[in-house]
Amino acid sequence: MKALFPTLFIAGLLSAPLSQADESLKPAAWVPLPAVGSSPETGFQYGAYVMRIFPQTTAGTPQNRLELLLQGTTNGQFQAYVWPNLYFDSGRLQVKGKLGGRYWPIGYFGQTNEAGDTADKYSDTAIEASITVNRKITPDLALGVKGFAEHHSLDDIDEDPSSTLLTDDGRTLVTGLFSGAGVNAIYDTRNNLDWPSQGQLVVASLDQFSELVGSESTFTLTRLRGAQYWSVSDDVIALSAEFQSASDDTPFTFLPRPNGGSTLRGANGNRWIDQLGLGAQAEYRMTLSPRWAVVGFADSYQVANDAGDLGLDQFHSSLGAGVRFGMTPDRFNIRFDLGWVDFEAIGFTITVGEAF
Q: CA geometry: angle at 348 spanning 344 and 352, to 5°?
């Protein structure tokens, strides 16, 4: 789980200049941030985030990156992760990974698109590792394979002895190893990885967890996501949509849901989980200066047990606005978004990188 909420007062920490005087290759940069903020899921967060952007080796090749996060929250959650992202063969080969762990107490509201206010509390102590290798087949199309292993220990920590939501749903707090392999395809014509102003991105993935490689259970996760970007003078119009599905025997901790940070911004996404997830987003990004920008957005998301339960009247919504501050010449941004969720509650998220 990659959750990061740094503050906006880090201009003095930035090491990358806005201009690169007559240099054809992009220089290295450090991006150190205090990981401080808030979300409905975590409460107040505190910690540190550091990104190392390595010098560009070949013109047109993405820069290698290494991200590190150490964070705690006032809700008693803790996590530490490392994400390397490396490119080889002039950018045609990408190798990225994840290694880390977390202790994450959280609420289970049931498997539904219409959650109430009552949740069973459980904790998830997890260690996660994954590696993905993507190879470009054409300049715009890449195919990839990945392997992953996660060990989860789930415990019921609800202080209310009458809390039976997990039991009533027939859910068990499964402890053990969940491992498998996956494949993905990426079609990418964006002109920038961090702040695209034109182009398309389509990502399709299938992850297969299997008892044949030691997993506690066998289940399948699929995801299809697409985004389109148009430039309007110095501004950008961006649209995105995604569909997720999980097989019937998927543990509830792996089921599709909005995450509240990049989908259905400002919401506690754990309120809505089920076998299928469907979402769409629209955003207008207005550039104010080489560093500053503001956005207006509309997010929607719904979950369902099967395709027949999906409907236009089932979407949850988040309408809002945000502020961006660029930390590198390519506009790797700090992102602050404030969303009005279901026309009932206001929530916000502070993180790095765009929602899509």
A: 150
Output the CA torsion sign for 65, 325, 72, 116: negative
**Chain-centre distance for alpha carbon 55:** 25
**For the chain, how many structural domains are there in total?**
1
Q: Which tokens go with 6?
A: 């740094």
Pick out the chain residues at pLDDT < 70: 1-23, 37, 161-173
Amino acid (one-letter) located at 3: A
Tally Cβ neighbours within 10 Å of residue 296. Answer: 13
Kindly report the pTM of this predicted structure.
0.87
By the 8 A CB rule, do 12 and 30 touch?
Answer: no
Containing 206, the helix (H) or strand (E) segment is strand 199-209
Residue 173's pLDDT is 64
Q: Which domain holds residue 190?
A: 11-352
pLDDT of residue 120: 86
CATH number of the domain that 166 lies in? Answer: 2.40.160.50
Report pLDDT for 5.
41
Please report whether residue 199 resides in a domain: yes
Q: Cβ(324)–Cβ(294) under 8 Å?
A: yes
> Angle 116-277-191 (CA atoms, 0-180°, nearest 5)?
130
Domain annotation covers residue 2: no
Whole-angstrom distance, CA of residue 255 vs CA of residue 149: 17
